Amino acid sequence: MNNKIYKYILIDNSIYINTEQGVIDLFINLYNMKPFSFFGRTTRSEVFNRLPAFIIRGLRVLQFIYEFHKKRLNGSSNRVITSHFFGGVMLELRQGGYKIFNLKKQEVMTVFPKQMPLLEIEERIRTTREAARCSLAPKVIKWSVAERYLTEEYINLKSPLYSFDNREKLCSEVFPILENILLTTEPEVLPFETYTRDKVIHLELLINRLQSTTNETISNVEKVKGFISLLKMRLQEYSRQKEIVLTFSHGDFCEGNILIANQSSRVIDWNTLGSRSFYFDFYHMMFKVGRYENMDQQEIARYREELEAGVELFYTKLRENANFHSLHEVNELNSFAVYRYLFYIELIILKLQFTGFSDDEKITRLMKWIRRIEVFEKVDAESYGQIGKSIAN
Ligand SMILES: Nc1ncnc2c1ncn2[C@@H]1O[C@H](COP(=O)(O)OP(=O)(O)O)[C@@H](O)[C@H]1O
Ligand SMILES: [Mg+2]
């Protein structure tokens, strides 16, 4: 660590800029930072949006630098983060802490929040290093628990945008990535009943430990409990299922955590790494690209068909892949409904375990997922009451 302190000022969209930086360097750096979609975004102006993408980006970066210049001159009211660590651009993270981008060295440093216990930092570093076993994850360069940081390889690629009804693009880009993640470690085969029972017990434990402070949370917790009863009941219908395959899983696999170009693709943000049921990351991605909060009934029906066709296609592709040879004996990998229900259970566990949020926030975030799932499964909170009663009897 050096003794010098760098000052980063907030400009826009959680992006901070190191004040010791010439505007020309800054322009070149920001213009070339492909992972920052913020600078490529269109605006409310139709005329502006019709310009070629490279001009839109150039103008947005210029506007951003002008803001930086203004803020640097009239100092006092700026939001500032100071740090011993050097870089050009800093990004404040949603769960606290920040990332510093050093483009000359092609490195990204994650600086963990001040209030994060050292044990948790150690765990986060261990997880990121474990994730680096997957060839798509950024390489880990260096770290220090005491100094609260971890430095990874900077990957200068762009995040993709998918639409659920563009099956071809989704499959050709996402399937190879998923296959790579799935093959990182040897899959594990467990008895279905034991695995499901343990997960449900774990989930119920997490729910009972929640501390609600608002009436809304209390009522939402009831809804989550109802939803879990429904899942338990549905899973009971599959008593013939013998085994379940667990694999290396990213846990937050979505467009924003993929960086891609023609020939190469990478995956970032592995905090949620874990061992989960086979299709977890597949379903996570598919539910995220659904965006069906605003769809009408007809579109939702089409989405459902696409998802079902998608998972079958994925399964077929895997069977053609020689690397999955050892899994061919597990016939039950095509019990898609079982794996979908397990995905829901594992997802709720993940959302409830997440640190850095209060219980109220966790529930609010979880409810967004539950609503998505309710639409997909054609169930709603009203019917849970009935289910809850029938289970109690
Ligand atoms: N190794 C990396 N290379 C390039 N960009 C990265 C890298 N890690 C993170 N980023 C950029 O920083 C953003 C936030 O990082 P991420 O780890 O995804 O945190 P969050 O939990 O906030 O999503 C990403 O969306 C991406 O734009
Ligand atoms: Mg992310």
Automatic annotation (TrEMBL):
Gene3D superfamilies: 3.90.1200.10. InterPro entries: Aminoglycoside_PTrfase (IPR002575), Kinase-like_dom_sf (IPR011009). It comes from the Bacteria. Residues 246-293 form the Aminoglycoside phosphotransferase domain. This is Phosphotransferase. It comes from Jeotgalibacillus marinus.
